Amino acid sequence: MNVKGLARDAVLTAVALGIFVVELQLPALTPIPGVKLGLANIVTVVAMFTLGWADAAGILLCRLVLGSFFAGNMMALLYSAAGGTLAFLTLLLLRRVLAENQLWVASVFAAMAHNLGQVLVAAAVTATPSIFVYLPVLLVSGIITGLLTGLAAQYTVSRVGRHLRK
Amino acid sequence: MVKTRTWIVLISALLLLSLGLTLWLWLHPTGGRTANIYVDGELVRSVDLAAVEGEETFTVDTGRGLNVITVSEGRLRVSGADCPDKVCVNSGWLSGSAPIVCLPHRLVIKFADSSGGPDAVAG
Q1: Which tens digit of pLDDT belongs to each residue from A23-80?
Q2: How many C-alpha atoms does A144 have within 13 Å on its Cβ side?
Q3: pLDDT tens digits, residue range B58-110?
């Protein structure tokens, strides 16, 4: 990676981290654990579709690690790691089958994969399979928030995507 | 390339399915007579909610931290915890359906019609 690419990825990481920290300050929309907007993933989706998987992975990893320092909750990093990995793989796979103007679709499915990962880890950690009753309600929230972040990413890519790729 | 319309139909179908399942689970609670409290998947305490009079509070030491649990007739809440996220506390009063989960302490409270096993401890 050249210096310009490194600087660009650092700026994108800072943007993602800024969004993440601001979102931390918002009151929870519902008392259901695991429901959140996930606005910082706009940056992940934009990076995946304009810069490729390696840059997107670097930005996501730095944001997750630094974000949990700022949030002061290292345990949350462990629990979100499974969801984050599944969501990232989903983005990676869907990138191959989606047209440029369909990238919001990838965000919806990535959000659902993230919910699945969360519930899997929670069920495994507590050895309680009945935690899966949370999955449907998490999927409802995941589809809605994934659509919002996906559309935001879609508009971002169509406005500034070509500047990022340079 | 798959048409955008196909994706919209697929996502709408998944949303409706999840909404339907959520509603179904919400309208069919698993029963709330007994609250079974698990740490690391092992039953540590079982409370007969129907037999509770007034309000009772007790503390569960999970080995990773403390959870203060308040029970009253037919319902239960986690009233305090020394975990950082307080998800379980914010869940509020519950009386059936979804379990209460405190991930940092690996504590789960499930509702059932009877106590959760032969080694159940009387509440």
Answers
A1: 988 887 776 777 888 899 999 999 999 999 999 999 999 999 999 888 877 777 777 7
A2: 11
A3: 888 888 888 888 888 777 888 888 877 777 787 777 766 677 888 778 888 88
Q: Mutate which of B86, B108, B110 to test chain A, going by most A C-beta atoms within 10 A? A: B108
Contact: A137, B7; criterion CB under 8 Å: no
Residue A163 near residue A52 (C-beta atoms within 8 A): no
* ipTM at complex level: 0.84
- Number of structural domains, chain B? 2
Q: Would an 8 Å CB–CB cutoff place A30 in contact with chain B?
A: no
Determine, yes or no, domain membership for B53.
yes
Enter the tokens of residue A87.
């969501």
- The parent domain of residue B85 ranges over 34-112
Interface of A with B in 67-126 (CB under 8 A): 72-73, 75-76, 79, 97-99, 101-102, 105, 108, 112, 122, 125-126
Per-residue pLDDT of B24-37, as tens digits, reads 887 776 666 788 88
Same-domain check for residues B62 and B108: yes
Q: Structure pTM?
A: 0.80
Let me know whether B38 and B23 are in one domain. no
Overall fold of domain A3-165: Arp2/3 complex 21 kDa subunit ARPC3 (1.10.1760)
Residues of B in contact with A130 (CB under 8 A): 99, 110
Chain A interface, mutation test: which of B10, B19, B22, B94, most A Cβ atoms within 10 Å?
B22
Q: Sign of the C-alpha dihedral, residues A92, A93, A94, A99?
A: positive
DSSP B99: P
The CB-side HSE value for A95 (13 A sphere, CA atoms) comes to: 17
